[in-house]
Design goal:
- The complex is a heterodimer of chains A (296) and B (222).
- Chain A has 296 residues and is α/β, with parallel strands linked by helices.
- A six-stranded mixed sheet of chain A has the order 5-6-7-3-8-9, sandwiched between helices. A four-stranded antiparallel sheet of chain A has the order 11-12-10-13. A three-stranded antiparallel sheet of chain A has the order 2-1-4, covered by helices on one side.
- In chain A, helix 2 packs across helix 3.
- The longest helix of chain A is centred in the middle third of the chain and has 16 residues.
- Chain A is globular, with a radius of gyration of 21 Å.
- Chain B is mostly helical and 222 residues long.
- Chain B has nine helices and no strands.
- Classes of the chains: A alpha/beta (296), B mainly alpha (222).
- The interface between A and B is medium-sized, with 33 and 27 residues.
- Chain A: Keywords: ATP-binding, Nucleotide-binding, Transport.
- Chain A: This is ATP-binding cassette domain-containing protein.
- Chain A: It comes from Streptomyces boluensis.
- Chain A: One of its GO terms (molecular function) is ATP hydrolysis activity.
- Chain A: It holds the Pfam family ABC_tran.
Chain lengths: 296, 222
Amino acid sequence: MHLTGVGRRYGALGPWVLRGVDLDVPPGTLMRVSGANGSGKSTLLRLLAGIDAPSEGRVTGRPRTAYVPERFPSSLPFTALGYLTHLGRVHGLRSAVATERARAWLERFGAAGHARTPLRELSKGTSQKVAVAQALLAEPELLILDEAWTGLDVDARAELDRTVGELTASGVAVVYVDHDPRRLAGAVDAAYRVEGAALLPDTGQVHEPAPRVTIVARGRAGAPLPAGLPEDARAELDAAGGATVTVPAAHSDTVLRALLRAEPPWHIRAVREPEAEPSPLSYADLSYVERGAEDR
Amino acid sequence: MNALFRYHSALLLRSQRWLPPVLVYGALVAVGAQPGDPVLDSLGYAAAALLPVAAWLARICATQEPPAARHVTAAATSPARTHLAALLTAAATAAALGAAGSALVMAMSDWWSADHRTPIAPVPGIVAGLLAVAVCALVGTALGALCTWPLLRSPGWSVMVTALAALLAVVTPGSPAQVVVTGLITGSRAGTAPVLVLPLAAAAVLAAAATAGACALTSRRT
């Protein structure tokens, strides 16, 4: 998708909220948009989502789009599953497929128990999970997240981070706004800042290195690494067929999937978080993995 | 469009916001059309009562999605398409309501002219009644679409302007609704049911133009 000289103002004589925005959103990009409150971030996201039309300039090459608002209203007279099925159909799915995917996404975000609950009775966080599920079940080519993490519990936030990593690795463009500068920090391909109605490349952002995960795997000696590893993965191969891959935590599942689905599959020996203190759980996981290797 | 229409219909049905306009229409018809009244008079009255109710339904359907939910559906399709689906839902509901009301009126009225001397032929009578329903549903939907979001956003003004516009549409000579309603009443005196196609065409053009205008504005106003 491409924005050319896009500007937006409300009313014929209103001040420009955004002006002269030239932006390219290629498939598979993870794009972060930051800016002060009321700077026009949400306006930019609405333009990208096609909810708003630009007052000047052009938007071309719009892919199938899904949007997650910051605060999802719970006043709709549907159950969670009923709403998601309707939205799945609106996205062009058949009813059965829509219901099935709605269940799967609710399950993944830990809201499966609320499938039959009326939206009015849901907590703010669970409503937000419904809003996220709505966008994901459509399998869009462009996903717009306007502070979609707000209100989600810790597990659901982590799940959304992982999902975003998987989506960008599979070619979906994701554009997001979040007040937490560390959100997906290591995986971002492009960062922009809205300031004084202009969209500027965000270079001054505090770059906390994202937690990187190390994956130790073994393949056939001399075998190359499989295709489909994320671009930000760093890999070292040794002559015996051992590989050490480090990757931002958000993309670890993508690496694992690529390794395990390779022909012949790679054997995963360990998954480690080097910067963080290893938790007892990860030790247990490790020893389990190692023992499994010896048993074989 | 099918899925959007289904979504908006379900929204209207489950929210029970349809109840007040339906009750008001029922009350208007019950007061104005008594059993045994001349059928064309009662049909004209039922059609005239439908017009403000159709405008009200259009207002309800255009604003029944909270903004965040509207953004979600608009991103999935387009703002214009989801607004079109909302207005189609309103028009279909108004037409169904009008058809039901007219059927009731036809069943309980006296199929004679106003002076009880000339019988009214059933087929032209039914056609004339349904034509009037279609015209009033279309004109009402058009007015409702023009008097609410995205054109008029303040609820107070919206209600006042809708009520005034609906009244004017029924009484202003030359308006499609006025022509069909007056046609039924004069037809009742003459003993012939007037089948007026021109007002229907005019109402359809008006509704299409109003809907297109409202839909085109949806992505310009938020």
